[in-house]
What does this fold into?
Amino acid sequence: MKKHPGIGSVVLGLFLSVLFPLGAEEIGLSLNSKTQADFFQGTGSASGFHYGAEEYANLRLRAPIRDQGVFYGAFNLTAAAGSSAAALAAAGHNAAGVNYAWAIELERLYLHLNGDALVWEAGLLRIPFGYSPAWGPADFLNPRNPLQPASRPRAALGTVLFAYPGPSTKLALYAAAPKEAAGTRGGGARFGLSAEGHTNWGSFQGLYFFEAPSSDYPRGLHRGGLSVKADWVLTFFAEALYQGNPENPDFAKNLAASLGADYSLPGGSVLLTAEYLYSGLLSSTAALGRGKNHYLNFTAVYLINDWAGLTFSCTAGLEDLSFLPTLAFSYELFQGLTFSLSALVPLDKKTFNSGNSAGELGPETLGRTFQVTAGAELRY
Amino acid sequence: MQKKITVIWALLLSLFGWGALCAQTPRAEELLRRVDQNEVYQTIEYEGEMIIEYQSRRYVKTFHAWVRGNSDSFMEFTNPEDRFTRYLKRSGRLFFYSPDTEEVIPISGHLLKESLMGSDLSLEDTVNNESLESRFNAAIAGEEVFNGRPAYVLDLNAKNRGESYPRQRLWIDRENYDLLHYELFALSGVKAKEWTLIRSEVFGARRFPVESEMRDLLRRDSRTIFIMRNVILDQPIADSIFTTRNLER
It folds into this structure.
């Protein structure tokens, strides 16, 4: 691996030196760190035992600008070995120490300004859409990875102007840079608007986006979405994002939609969530899969007591009957420090009969037959 | 004849005694009104602390809270582990802002009754501010000494269905009408929670509980000490506090 000693540190140092003169006593600093090791049994040419180890910290800074706004910054700091180091290298972070790879990643960097009538945000920020807990088909600017539900959502470079016509309503105008960051002609830039409201029965959000013409979409791309969350004994959520794609106008290929419900058993110690996803092959969620349309996510959380809990979640590919069940146990040793242990066992039809083809979420595709992960998370 | 006179005297004495008792004991509704006058507010702003003791563990959560009437409340947690976590209750809907996901999440209605941040209180407990008199029929069940204070004991039964705890028993200080203690019973009749006053303070013409203990009896060996500091009662609070915009600020 090629070494880049100190580049990240210099960036971080510059960032801190810019921030702190604003008033060090006002700066809010919070830390979310994870120490994690995972072990897995590989498949195919990578068969056999593998390990990964990672020390990760998400460092957040918050600098109020009088009462008029806030400047936010956040960094991910990672040191890794084994498969975790390989993952860093695959993501383009190729700095290395004595026996580890490391990375400093800019995660957030944005300004939030409060006006009397309007709020303006600009920079590297999270721009969320929709109420879907697992799949988030409308959350296309910062797409989630349902296979890593605990990971913090990523950011996009953009700007948003909010207006609040009522205490429970919000209108917004958006502009976001193209996915091709180094492109200078602006092809693929995204512009949009959204409206959100909350009533006694539930919440709803509608959005429209236009993506400027680019080499991928010479005539541009239109996106329209709707998300609803409603309370009626259970809580139901439905969400859809359709993209008007002149290059390939097939409705089914351009639609992503999810439908689900959650419910907590009396006493609150068990929370159940189930959500189905239809994923069109060209839609916002297409990157999740490999040419499949129907998925299901089920999660059951059992709180054993205030400091220990069990979570079972299973993501399923319904067409090829492949499953990704995960069982996780968490234990809070003291306020702010939580230990966790999880086991993941990908399953598909080939697991039980070698004559069958491999499934999308099966061991062959994911490159492991089982994985055990142990970690400690500190929040402060 | 002697026996008849004795019976008449006994009847007269008992009537006199009952009359004297009635003259001293306020009516149940009057007691409830006194409690409501002390505890029901138009608005409140305070800095709160919850000390949660659960099976030999101790957690401390601090927050800033604003409450208006019985329908609107806003809480922002300030302890390091939960800093910038915010809750908004507005017109019966509950919203949650997490600094981890940086988005406002409407919380499912069924979660309103669940534990607030691992404490013995539900979010509903912390914001419930509707007068007892409007919600319950009351009957005096007797008098007892509670924590060294002479107290009236009141039994309450809900006027309407939909109360989380349709039956309650209250201990009200005979001298200053502090609500000293109450017990909440679930629909099944099981005693679910116990609340005990630790300290009240005088604000103008009212006595207001600023330190109390709540026990959720469904949680074994658990209690939460709830402390309010820098309490500001019945001062106008800007409408902008109780908005989803404030969650995202």
Notes: The first helix of chain A runs from residue 7 to 19. Chain A touches chain B at residues 28, 30, 32, 60, 62, 70, 112, 114, 119, 125-126, 128, 131, 152-153, 162, 164, 167-168, 170, 198-200, 202-203, 229, 231, 233-235, 262-264, 267-268, 305-307, 334-336, 379-380 (CB under 8 Å). Confidence is low (pLDDT under 50) at residues 1-5, 20-25 of chain A.
